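2024-03-11 09:14:02 DEBUG pipeline.ingest accepted 1 chain
2024-03-11 09:14:02 DEBUG pipeline.ingest length=236
2024-03-11 09:14:03 DEBUG pipeline.predict start
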Amino acid sequence: MSAILQVENLETAYGASQVLFGVSFSIEEGEMATLLGRNGMGKTTTIRSIMGLTASRGGAVSFRGERIEQRATDRIARMGIALVPEGRQIFPNLSVKENLIAFAANRNGSKAPWNIDRVFEFFPRLAERSNNMGNQLSGGEQQMLAIGRALMTNPHLLILDEATEGLAPLIREEIWKCLAALKAAGQTVLVIDKYVERLIAIADHHTIIERGRVAWKGSSAELGADRELWHRYLGV
């Protein structure tokens, strides 16, 4: 099986300050993978480099067999990568329904694509608030909308940066259940989050980043069995 996303020796800097030093990992179609590490270690920069939001200085990023590290962000998105960014970044002056409609596409050519009805079935809270403006939603509802908006593009790969950051525990549980359902449906997902216990339960494999370098890679079973890794790299 070939990787849907292949990141090889990725190097990225902000001006004279280098942040990534040869980051490499891959994701197979249908897998759920994670990027783990303490704050400031390079996880978000890795995502930004994959999406073309921050230009890389070295290495290669391949998506579905095509090199993308030199492509513009809009072209990368149209190839079928959808990002749920840190901070959610929904349109505050559009309604829930309008936020979803604005992103409607079928980039993976699905015969049963995500549409508004399907998103509302997946997130009943959004259906109840379909006419509310984005700035009238709670943080949890905004995160559901950000995920629903990404799903409306019918992506080959869904990326979530800080999937449950700042959410109340009950809302976090809803997001975990949604991610588990997406994985069960065959959606390829890359997640950044700090709740290792929950990620181990649903993800296939993990990459830990420490100071811009890959410090460890392995399966959920391997990560779950080595609590020393958690203390050394994740601060838990």
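2024-03-11 09:14:41 DEBUG pipeline.report The chain is about 35% helix and 30% strand.
2024-03-11 09:14:41 DEBUG pipeline.predict end
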